[in-house]
Design brief:
Layout lengths: L1 E8 L2 E7 L20 E3 L6 E4 L5 E7 L6 E3 L1 E7 L5 E10 L4 E7 L7 E6 L4 E5 L7 E8 L2 E9 L6 E9 L8 E3 L5 E11 L15
Antiparallel strand pairs: 1-2, 3-7, 4-5, 5-16, 6-15, 7-14, 8-13, 8-16, 9-10, 9-14, 10-11, 12-13
């Protein structure tokens, strides 16, 4: 059972208990990307400054640093994995200055450098990122403009670690994760999770250790 589970039902957030089909563990040590456990590049100073899907000030404005020009704006956490095991990486996201998110599996042998773009304006998977196969993307409307985006994959017989990466993405023209560093490139992020299993389970918040 998961206590304090939130679901958006008939236009309102409902808090209650959800019974999962099996036990899961969130491999991330911190679910929010403002923590130093997440390595970041070209981001503004991040904090929990926006209303999340739980109705609290719990979401992070994932924004560029305003350095001018263009560049990659990213955050990732290193993960330890078991070989030949299915994993799902998920996050709640909402459009802000931008409407695009790229979720990327990095430094794994299988899948080898591949990710998916998510369109947070229309609630769809935009397109496969060039450079490999092996991911299954899903997106679920959580209400209030929030979507739970996820990529699932199976590690190979050698993989024991990798990086679960997030990038801001610009979907206004040719889909790209190189964005303007003008202080306005942003989306909202909440509740990152990395777990063994082929689908995402309900959120397991972590605050310094896997759980």
């Amino acid at each position: 059972p998961r206590r304090d589970n939130h679901e958006y039902i008939d236009g309102a957030w409902v808090k209650g208990m959800k019974v999962e089909s099996e036990a899961r563990t969130n491999v991330f040590t911190y679910t929010n990307i403002d923590n130093a456990a997440w390595t970041r590049g070209n981001t503004a100073t991040l904090s929990q400054d926006a209303v999340g899907p739980d109705g609290q000030t719990s979401a992070v404005t994932f924004a560029d640093n305003g350095a001018t020009g263009t560049g990659l704006v990213y955050a990732y956490e290193n993960v330890t994995v078991n070989t030949s095991t299915s994993y799902t990486y998920s996050v709640y996201a909402k459009a802000d200055g931008l409407t695009g998110l790229l979720m990327y599996a990095g430094n794994f042998t299988t899948p080898a450098g591949v990710g998916y773009y998510f369109d947070l304006a229309n609630g769809v998977v935009d397109s496969a990122f060039s450079g490999g196969t092996g991911l299954t993307p899903t997106i679920h409307d959580e209400g209030g403009g929030w979507y739970r985006c996820a990529i699932s994959f199976e590690t190979d017989a050698a993989d024991t670690s990798g990086q679960a990466e997030l990038y801001l993405a610009d979907l206004s023209g040719a889909t790209t994760h190189t964005v303007a560093l003008d202080g306005t490139s942003s989306i909202l992020i909440y509740g990152a999770q990395f777990e063994a299993g082929s689908t995402p389970s309900s959120l397991i918040p972590t605050y310094g250790a896997t759980r």
